[in-house]
């Protein structure tokens, strides 16, 4: 019996910001699903353990140094990846900054850094990978947004603005590129337990506050996000484009 095709076997996937946290897990998940993975981080050596784990599990992966704030570097590195692997089929824009700051304390430098990574970097990664995808008539782009792209949180002026911009960017690119075989979507996670969020989420009061806002009654895991990303990267999601898939346990339903 024929059913939806969730396979990404043999596809070439790029994951930015893959040295830790969600990006690390997304790269592992894509590799486990059969994709050949090119992973990036500002320091290539920070990717060594990820590459080793993927290869030990029987996957194929390669590491590249990339600062997504540098547009010329994006073009150079994506060109290397396309040359090394032969094409680019999937892009997961995960690289991002998330440190909060009260609105009255936000400096120009803080604002610019947040938007340069979280929005400008995402756009130029989309643009660069998109050109390869449009030429071949096929591609899947998944932008890692956030639940706070649709609801606000204190200390989130710059972060929420950047992620809201990602959502709008995703819609516009879908309008321009979907008819040419390239699908662009976003995922919006709630609080996800990672080494980077553990300190806050292990604080009883903070954790209780977060859980009180999640109807599903638990903190998110990297696998929760990975399931959404692998789905959107697969042929099963061929008619899904320009959308935000919230992985928030119902937070934004309230």
Would you kindly provide a written description of the structure presented here, covering whatever features stand out?
The protein has a single domain (12-192, 222-247), classed as Rossmann fold. It starts with 11 loop residues before the first strand and ends in a 7-residue tail after the last strand. Helix 1 (21-32) crosses helix 8, helix 3 (71-85) runs parallel beside helix 4 (108-136) and helix 4 (108-136) packs parallel to helix 5. It has helices spanning 21-32, 48-56, 71-85, 108-136, 157-177, 198-201, 204-212, 222-233, and strands spanning 12-15, 36-41, 61-65, 90-93, 139-144, 182-189, 244-247. The model has no long low-confidence stretch (mean pLDDT 97). It is α/β, with parallel strands linked by helices. It has a 7-stranded parallel sheet with strand order 3-2-1-4-5-6-7, with helices on both faces. Keywords: Oxidoreductase. This is SDR family oxidoreductase.
Low-confidence stretches: none
| Main sheet record | 7 strands, parallel
What is the percentage of strand-forming residues?
A: 5-15%
CATH architecture: 3-Layer(aba) Sandwich
Task: Provide the fold topology.
Layout: E1 12-15, H1 21-32, E2 36-41, H2 48-56, E3 61-65, H3 71-85, E4 90-93, H4 108-136, E5 139-144, H5 157-177, E6 182-189, H6 198-201, H7 204-212, H8 222-233, E7 244-247
Helix pairs in contact: 1-8, 3-4, 4-5
Organism: Paenibacillus pinisoli
Protein name: SDR family oxidoreductase
Pfam family, one: adh_short_C2
